[in-house]
């Protein structure tokens, strides 16, 4: 053997020996007292660190992200440094929010599990079990509703709760497996017959059941089964682990029981019975009403939600559902000042019966960081002083506005809202409040069935800025999505594949479309300016506003009072005046527009028409001014231009009154823009990714189970 081969052989042998020497084993001789002390110490460090991150750093992050300086740093990082041209942006893991949460908490718990163990596998095994127990209080704290954390909605904590629980299940499983291996090596498997170890094995089986039913397909298939197992097995594991752990864990058990008991107390004390009235709207939606006075907590902000469940006549069932609260969350579609609560419910979620008693809990206010409820001043003078102390240059501040119950302090200049399906209940009150307070807003509602538009007739609302897209896609409401144009996605601009079983959108729909569009002209006009790296959206088939307003819907005063006409003060052309006021005997306000059924070539919609309906029922009236399109919207450059106030119409782009703001501070403009998404997971995640790529403020309400 040559000297070179001998040298390589020795280097490989040394490397293998070095790796082997650092593999944890049960053969390490460590003092039992020292090992126990280290396990308890690092477990407490893990609990302390997790508590600080959840209770301090997370709310602090939610607060700092609202500041202009933090937003500037975040925008430059996301939009410019880690923009679409970067290699990191092309990775799918970079856009996977669940992966980031899982990776962070997995790394954190691994550090406290393995650090300073001197390759002592028995100590690692003990730490796994102890850390799994220590993470139970933070885990249960994350499930509290409402969340006691400031500027934090409890729904936003559920992804963290989900992934920490899965890591805890993994730690518990490894703890059990390594202990079984240790007992086999020491020939002490008979210790499994001891009662504390039996408690531990049962707790492990319950953990596995909780983890298995939390997987998305299982949870969506039978959410009721998941919830019953999740809640009841949590109580059982808390009790079993108390009797299994050695040394004892009285403090951990006390914290767990306090959190779970407080949740029951809050739910029982804030639950009332109410009698509801239902109104069938469409084959997929029903409107439910009950009095505001039946709520223990009155909503203070728009788009709050309540939790509802049917009230059982059987006393035992009623007590059971008080302890195990299988309730359905629904967003309040009315304003906080309305005397009646209206809920928009997707059929099949809950048995709906008129004049039936239901248990209602709440209301739970949303955490909309750009809306604040003003304090109630003693008089108008104090109100004015308060307004100017919190002066918002983008909000209309007048005496009549300040004294209105719809007055809110809005920290936004423009708000772009995307909702899908029954999540329109989140967008309607928000649209009215923002319009009333002088904020420029767009509400884009994506629905599968055009008959859902009948819902709008039940609300007296200001629908300015509302756009409706009828996707006609087959499937459940949770499958509603919104397209997002991205460089790392294959182009589908000229693809139109419509079969009887699938629907791929033919159109690349730009959200910017004028009310009076001409079918013979392009909907959007190409611009020479490029903003960042946003891709231009194109259309293969131009969409037409199906709710296009007619001339008789409004009076045109420009023909009478145009600046180019000079008339004598003493002479009035009566005939010309009468011709300009042809509608003086008619209702001067704009009237509802009738929407006809989708065109016959809109094949995906044919699947929705399962019942034969009369021609009158097939037509839907929508408020005038609402834009209705058949297709699915696409997030693209025009939406970004709208956020920057660069959304000038193609017809008036050269007008001197068009505010393009090309030379304004882009970051300063965007810091006053919010993007909001509510509804199915696909719609929310597409909007989140688009917003994240642009570095904008984002608020999400995910309606997925």
UniProtKB/TrEMBL annotation:
Keywords for this protein: Electron transport, FAD, Flavoprotein, Ion transport, Membrane, Oxidoreductase, Transmembrane, Transmembrane helix, Transport
Matches recorded under CDD domains: NOX_Duox_like_FAD_NADP (cd06186)
Subcellular location: Membrane
GO biological process: reductive iron assimilation
Domain Ferric oxidoreductase: 128-240
InterPro entries recorded: Fe3_Rdtase_TM_dom, RBOH/FRE
Keyword Transit peptide among record annotations: no
Membrane topology qualifier: Multi-pass membrane protein
GO molecular function, one term: ferric-chelate reductase activity
Cellular component annotations (GO), alphabetically ordered: plasma membrane
One Pfam family hit: Ferric_reduct
Transmembrane spans: 42-60, 98-115, 127-144, 164-182, 198-218, 225-243, 415-434
Protein name: Ferric oxidoreductase domain-containing protein
Organism from which the protein derives: Naumovozyma dairenensis (strain ATCC 10597 / BCRC 20456 / CBS 421 / NBRC 0211 / NRRL Y-12639) (Saccharomyces dairenensis)
Gene: NDAI0C03140
């Amino acid at each position: 053997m040559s000297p070179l081969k001998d040298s390589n052989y020795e280097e490989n042998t040394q490397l293998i020996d070095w790796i082997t020497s650092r593999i944890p084993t049960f053969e390490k001789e460590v003092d039992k007292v020292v090992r126990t002390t280290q396990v308890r110490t690092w477990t407490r460090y893990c609990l302390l660190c997790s508590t600080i991150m959840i209770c301090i750093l997370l709310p602090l992050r939610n607060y700092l992200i609202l500041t202009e300086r933090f937003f500037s740093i975040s925008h430059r990082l996301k939009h410019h440094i880690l923009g679409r041209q970067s290699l990191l942006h092309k990775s799918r893991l970079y856009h996977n929010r669940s992966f980031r949460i899982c990776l962070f908490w997995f790394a954190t718990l691994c550090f406290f599990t393995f650090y300073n163990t001197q390759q002592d596998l028995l100590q690692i095994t003990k730490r796994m079990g102890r850390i799994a127990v220590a993470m139970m209080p933070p885990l249960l704290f994350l499930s509290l509703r409402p969340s006691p954390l400031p500027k934090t909605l409890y729904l936003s904590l559920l992804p963290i709760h989900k992934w920490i629980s899965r890591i805890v299940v993994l730690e518990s499983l490894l703890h059990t497996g390594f202990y079984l291996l240790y007992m086999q090596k020491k020939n002490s498997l008979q210790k499994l017959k001891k009662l504390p170890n039996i408690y531990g094995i049962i707790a492990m089986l319950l953990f596995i059941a909780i983890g298995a039913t939390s997987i998305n397909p299982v949870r969506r298939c039978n959410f009721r089964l998941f919830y019953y197992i999740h809640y009841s097995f949590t109580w059982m594991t808390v009790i079993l682990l108390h009797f299994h752990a050695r040394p004892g864990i009285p403090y951990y058990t006390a914290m767990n029981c306090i959190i779970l008991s407080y949740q029951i107390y809050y739910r029982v004390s804030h639950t009332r019975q109410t009698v509801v009235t239902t109104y069938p709207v469409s084959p997929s939606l029903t409107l439910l009403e009950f009095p505001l006075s039946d709520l223990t907590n009155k909503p203070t902000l728009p788009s709050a939600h309540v939790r509802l469940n049917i009230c059982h006549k059987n006393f035992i069932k009623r007590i059971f559902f008080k302890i195990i609260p299988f309730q359905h969350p629904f967003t309040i579609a009315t304003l906080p000042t309305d005397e009646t609560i209206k809920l928009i419910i997707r059929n099949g979620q809950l048995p709906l019966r008129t004049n039936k008693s239901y248990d209602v809990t709440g209301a739970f206010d949303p955490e909309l960081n750009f809306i604040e409820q003003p304090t109630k001043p003693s008089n108008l003078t104090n109100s004015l002083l308060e307004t100017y102390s919190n002066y918002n240059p983008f909000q209309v501040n007048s005496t009549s506005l300040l004294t209105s119950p719809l007055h809110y302090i809005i920290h936004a200049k423009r708000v772009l809202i995307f909702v899908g399906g029954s999540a329109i209940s989140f967008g309607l009150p928000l649209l009215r409040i923002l319009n009333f307070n002088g904020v420029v807003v767009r509400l884009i509602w994506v629905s599968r069935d055009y008959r859902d538009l009948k819902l709008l007739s039940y609300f007296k609302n200001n629908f300015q800025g509302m756009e409706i897209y009828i996707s006609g896609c087959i499937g459940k409401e949770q499958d509603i999505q919104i397209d997002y144009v991205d460089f790392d996605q294959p182009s589908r601009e000229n693809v139109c594949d419509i079969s009887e079983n699938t629907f791929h959108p033919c159109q690349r729909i730009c959200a910017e479309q004028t009310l009076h569009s001409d079918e013979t002209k392009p909907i959007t006009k190409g611009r020479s300016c490029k903003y960042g790296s946003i891709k231009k959206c194109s259309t293969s088939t131009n969409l037409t506003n199906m709710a296009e307003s007619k001339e008789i819907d409004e009076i045109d005063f420009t023909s009478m009072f145009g600046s180019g006409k000079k008339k004598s003060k003493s002479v009035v052309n009566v005939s010309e005046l009468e011709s300009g006021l042809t509608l003086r005997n008619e209702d001067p306000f704009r009237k509802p527009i009738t929407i006809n059924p989708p065109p016959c070539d809109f094949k995906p919609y044919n699947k929705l028409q399962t019942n034969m309906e009369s021609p009158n029922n097939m037509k839907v009236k929508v408020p005038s001014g609402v834009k209705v399109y058949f297709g699915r919207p696409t997030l693209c450059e025009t939406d970004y231009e709208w956020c920057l106030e660069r959304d000038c119409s193609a017809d008036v782009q050269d007008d001197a009154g068009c505010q393009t703001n090309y030379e304004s501070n882009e970051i300063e403009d965007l810091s006053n823009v919010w993007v909001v998404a509510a509804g199915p997971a696909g719609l929310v995640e597409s909007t989140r990714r688009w917003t994240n790529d642009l570095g904008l403020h984002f608020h999400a309400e995910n309606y997925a189970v």
